[in-house]
Each structure stands twice: as structure tokens, then as C-alpha cells.
Design brief:
mainly alpha, homotetramer
Chain lengths: ~100, ~100, ~100, ~100
């Protein structure tokens, strides 16, 4: 199992053990991603672009941001999982499209 | 190099080759994630929860969703990269916190 | 009828005339707001804070932003409508809470 | 002054009195809208479409949603204000465009 499959499998087990599978429809997970992405954006909203660099952030702020990144990532892996999407392949495919565009 | 580092490295090179590093401040990338998460949510907004399952989606719709997932993922790996955050470790740490909470 | 009720009423009629009321559950409308807010954020993602000021934006860009603001506003009035929330009163109440906090 | 101008004027004074004008660039406000829209979406993420209707929501939940709607609205009026956009006119213009499309 590769690294992303591994993480995805842990997230799947976490949901299964709490009987949360019924809540994890693609629609609900896409909504959860939007919610977490909003919280991640909120961490940066009053910072200047320069002030958002890691060497300008306090340890506490960086820790909060790190956990918000994790929240988005967990729901993104979970959404891909319930849809049967291979995230790594999708990223590579999208980058090839972008290569052609830019 | 593990799988996520590998993808992150390709994304970094893509940005570097286009001289986009100056645009990729953490603030801007967090904003891009919110934008892409909004587009991903929009794919599902008028579907019923049941209708959002992969066996109910047309091939074309699923393909669109797959590329929207990739867009969020690319910017999320990129944000973690510029902040020096290890996404896999952050996910595992957040899941441990969640284990304690739920 | 006050100005916001007036706009809300036009939006309600628009939905009714297209038989879209069944799609306009609060959940779906909240998702649509997140989607439109993401598109609005995307308009600004690569701009500097200074470059986002109206005197720095092209007429075309400002027109696009204006219509994205309208999209968020239309769904926000519609959500408030289906929930029976008076937006103006909610704004005043929230500002009073903020007065106490800041 | 009409109702929306009135609310916008109160929001402007609130920001001015706290010397927050320097933070209220269009870019930052668009980010704040995305953040608040994410929080609003989060209120609905695990509900069924039917369960999101106002008669199914607890008084407490509806109160939380009401204040999240207010948060999005406050930043949306503020963004329109700093950009010199008339929200009511923008809504009417967008609805005319939509009339032609649907």
C-alpha cells in the first residue's frame, strides 16, 4: 500500500468505527471540505502576504494552521475514497493538463 | 522520497519553472484553496446526498469532480510545502487528537 | 416593504417561476453560498492587497467582482428567506455582539 | 439613505472607530467572506436536506445559523462599500442576466 492509500485507510477505519459512514456522502464531505478550507483561509485573512510566511508566524499560529491543513486533507482523502478516486493519479493528470495550459 | 514528497516536489518545480514562486505566499495559497474548495462544493450543490454517490454520477460529472479534487490537493500540498509542514504527519497528529475527542 | 424584503421577494419569485423551490433547501443554499464565496475569493487570490483596491482594478475585473458579489448576495437573501431569518435584524444583532467584544 | 446604505454606513463606522480600515482591503474582505461562508456551510454539513429546514432545527441551532448569515452579510456589505459597488443594483443586474439564461 502506498502512503496516500495508507492514510486513506486509517481515515476510513476511523469513520467506520464510529458508524459515521452514513454521514460521509460525497455531498456532505464536499461541504465539510468547504467548511475546513474556510477555517484555513480565516487563519490568514488579516495577515499581509509577507506576514503569512512561516518565519513570521508564531509557533502557536503555525501549529493552528498545520492542524487546519490536516482537517482539509483528511476530508479530501475521505471524499476521494468514497468516490473511488485515486488522488495521486488525479493530481498527476491535472498537472499534465496545466502543463499544456501554462 | 515518499509519495507525498514526490508529488509536492513536482508541484514546486511546476511553480518554479513559471516563476510563480512570488505569487505563492501562504496567504495567497490559502485563498486559492478556498476558491477551489468552493468549486468542488458547487459540483454537489443541487444533488441529493444519494445522488452524489459515485454510481449515480455520470462519467463526465465524475471526471469534473476528480479534477476539482486534484485542484484542491495541488494547492494544499503547495501550501504545506511553502510553510514547511509535513502533511502526512499533520494528518496523523490530527487523527490522534480526534481519537481522543470522539 | 423595505429594500431587502423587496429584493428577497424578487429572488423568491424567480425561483418559484422556475420550479426551483425543491432545490432550495437551507443545506443546498449554504453550499451554493460557499461555492460563490469561493469564486469571489478566486478573483482576488493572486492580487496584492494594494492591487485589490478598486482604483487598481480594470473595469472588466471590477465588473466580474461586482457580479460575484451579487451571486453571494442572491443566495444569502434566499437562504435567509427559506429560514425565515430577517437579515437586517440579524446584522444589527451581530454588530451589537461585536460592539461588546471589540 | 436606503436600508442597505444604512447598514453599510454602520459597518463602516464600526471599522473606522476601531482603526480597522487598513485591514479592510478588498482582498482581505473577500477572504473573510470565504471564511464566514465556510462556517455557515459547516452548520449544515451533516444534516439531511430535509433536516436543514427551519422547522427541524433547534432554536439554538437556528440562532447560530442566523449569526453566521449576519457574519457573511456584514463582510459582503463592507466589501461592496470599499469597492464602491451598489449591492442592490448589482443584484438586480445579475438577476436580469439570469432571466436571460434560465
Amino acid at each position: 500500500m502506498d502512503q496516500i492509500e495508507n492514510l486513506t485507510s486509517s481515515i476510513r477505519d476511523f469513520a467506520k468505527n464510529r458508524d459515521w459512514e452514513k454521514f460521509h456522502t460525497p455531498k456532505n464531505l464536499a461541504m465539510a471540505i468547504a467548511g475546513e478550507a474556510g477555517e484555513l483561509a480565516a487563519e490568514f485573512q488579516w495577515l499581509t502576504p509577507e506576514g503569512s510566511n512561516s518565519d513570521q508566524l508564531s509557533d502557536e499560529k503555525l501549529k493552528d494552521i498545520r492542524l487546519e491543513i490536516a482537517d482539509v486533507q483528511i476530508y479530501l482523502f475521505r471524499l476521494a475514497d468514497v468516490l473511488g478516486v485515486n488522488v495521486a493519479q488525479a493530481v498527476l493528470e491535472k498537472m499534465e493538463i496545466n502543463e499544456g495550459r501554462f
